[in-house]
């Protein structure tokens, strides 16, 4: 009884609204039929054209209410409706149906995409950290553990590793910019991001796969976390050696700092693996990949300026080789000015 | 009496479903008078003479100079505690102006990097939005993140305008760049932590902001 009595005045209002709409919204009628204005407002012209999705949404609401009302009503309202539609003809109705379908499909796709996005919440517990914890883990990543007889705890956290990967990207970019490295196919940013994220995700997956083969007790998140924190040594080494260009210094940092972080990762993995062959395979692979990556980053992304730049290549110049050579201990500025002076005289 | 206001407030919404937003706003602002029996709903239907009753253009566009100035002052003084409620409204005019100013000062230094500025801002906003949603209990919207990050870009404009006068590729330039990066990221993290109630995690928010502003500094310096 309640909804019925409520819908009746609503229907009257809606029916009255249709015929009375001309009276109430006098402004719109004038716009539609007045010959004075050259600009036609599509949205307000035709109630049934459904040319915008917002209107479709509201129309949906109104249609649902109308459907409930029309069943209980006589044909008076229908006649009025028919009359109203008759003015615009079949085209309005067809357009309305097409727009209606598009609205439905769009709504379904949007809600599906939204629920997919909401899945990012499964990563939420891995970002719940305090600054003190992050600092402690950073320092711990350089200290190899001694006890390898029972499984070492690995923090399954993704904030620290993610920030370290981004830091490595920033350091690479800085190194490429200071050394005027020219990347011929691609952009500097794309190369840096691709290299760092590719290493982190790719090598983690590969080692996780090997760990699965060698029966090691480690999960994917833990592996990501372990390798991410292992990049801390890489960040320090590259930050120092991109600014101070001594080869011997780089090798000392490579072995010292790189070696320490590799030893830590190896020790943790060894503590979680049983069997000598498996330990050897797993840790050998990880150590080799980690140390070689640092070597690669140093030599591929920071060209040591020692001679003529690429752009000043003349026809009788030998092809410039991007291989670092041992240079005497001279300051970078002297080298640059010497190189430019030689190039200018040629 | 108790049912009176309910039936009266229940009436306007169905019929005003297609009313222009101006009428809706004015009917909501008259809630005090709805309870009085002398209220006539015909006072807000004068659409033909609505020109005098339209709100001023700036108010309609949502540009509030007082708020913009307040937010700019908050950014410029990182030591001043931020009011968490000022970031409730998404205001993108200030950030747009600052991005354009950054592009213009870079142009003065001979670098046409408008595309890079916009691209890095867009990707940075997306990344920060994802990170903040993962780290905070209450979520943030894209507009809020874009607004905060855009406002805190103001010190970077100072850096790029100083790059016009002298080259930043020496030690003093690097130090100035580091100082400006620290300033930007401190302001941004201060506003984020006060708006999202994430005390104790300010450093964790400041670091990604520092990386993002470091990219802008890289663009400015080199």
Question: What does this entry look like structurally?
Answer:
The complex is a heterodimer of chains A (346) and B (222). By secondary structure, chain A is mostly helical. Chain A has a domain of 155 residues. In chain A, 69% of the residues lie in helices and 0% in strands. Chain B is mainly α. Chain B has a domain of 130 residues. In chain B, 67% of the residues lie in helices and 0% in strands. Chain B has twelve helices and no strands. In chain B, helix 7 runs parallel beside helix 10, helix 8 packs across helix 9 and helix 10 runs parallel beside helix 12. The radius of gyration of chain B is 23 Å and the shape is globular. Chain B starts with a helix and ends with a helix.
Could you give a quick summary of the protein structure above?
Chain A has about 350 residues and is an all-alpha fold. Chain A is built from 13 helices and no strands.
Number of helices of chain A: 13
Order of helices and strands of chain A: HHHHHHHHHHHHH
- Overall structural class of chain A, as computed from helix and strand content, comes to mainly alpha
Measured by DSSP, the beta-strand proportion of chain B falls in under 5%
SSE topology string of chain B: HHHHHHHHHHHH
Strand content of chain A: under 5%
Family (chain A): Belongs to the YIP1 family.
GO cellular component, one term (chain A): Golgi apparatus
Region (Disordered) (chain A): 1-83
Main location (chain A): membrane
Observed structural traits:
heterodimer; A: 346 residues; mainly alpha; flat; B: 222 residues; globular; disordered N terminus; transmembrane helix (chain B); Yip1_dom (chain B); Protein YIPF (chain B)
